Amino acid sequence: TRAERAYVSNEGSGSISVIDIDAGRVIRTLAVGKRPRGLKLSRDGSHLYVAVSGLARCGAPVDLDCDPLKHDLSADGIAVVDTRALKPSQPLRAGSDPQQLDATPEGRRLFVANADTASASVVDAMSGNFITRIAIGRGAEAERLSPDGAWALAVSERVRSGEK
């Protein structure tokens, strides 16, 4: 199937842009929370999940070198956008500094990479309940699930000697 819309995160402005692909123009810009990064569209296209982070942008080399006092923990989460109404809801709690995420095939659970805590959070997308935290290595960047949802893969940008 061909997509009618594209969604783009605007990290600096705390918004996402919704683009009409046929017209080649932005049809709406939505405020979703601080520092939106990872985006994941639900399988049925009814919801867009957006990783938002209250960690201040610090620049190179990586955000791990930021001043932890500039981290607004209350801004961390996964914003959920209703793609039909183009309205965001209150973010789901998903651990500290969410970067990227993926969803199980049926959309029940979200796996979220938490960069500053070297972990992944698992969240029930329906209830918003936090399920568990999994240690994955320093600088957690991304999560990807196998098509059948049996495997969750994590990417870390740094591994120190002796760390697994």
Order of helices and strands: EEEEEEEEEEEEE
Mean pLDDT equals 87
Cα(first) to Cα(last) distance is: 40 Å
Q: Could you name the ranges where pLDDT drops below 50 across 5 or more consecutive residues?
A: none
Q: Strand pairing plus helix content: what structural class?
A: mainly beta
Largest beta-sheet details:
4 strands, antiparallel
> How much beta, percentage-wise?
35-45%
Strand order of the largest sheet: 4-5-6-7
Tally of DSSP helical segments: 0
Quick one: overall form?
globular
Helix content: under 10%
Radius of gyration: 16 Å
Count of beta strands = 13
Polypeptide structure, described:
This protein has 164 residues and is mainly beta. The protein contains no helices and 13 strands. It has strands at residues 5-10, 15-20, 25-31, 39-41, 47-52, 77-82, 87-88, 98-103, 109-114, 119-124, 130-135, 140-145, 152-156. The chain has a 4-stranded antiparallel beta sheet, with no helix packed on it. It has a 4-stranded antiparallel beta sheet with strand order 8-9-10-11, with no helix packed on it. Strands 1-2-3 form a 3-stranded antiparallel beta sheet, with no helix packed on it. Strand 1 (5-10) and strand 2 form a beta hairpin.
Task: Sum up the structure in keywords.
single chain; globular; 164 residues; mainly beta; four-stranded antiparallel beta sheet; 43% strand
Indicate the topology.
Elements (H helix, E strand, L loop, with lengths): L4 E6 L4 E6 L4 E7 L7 E3 L5 E6 L24 E6 L4 E2 L9 E6 L5 E6 L4 E6 L5 E6 L4 E6 L6 E5 L8
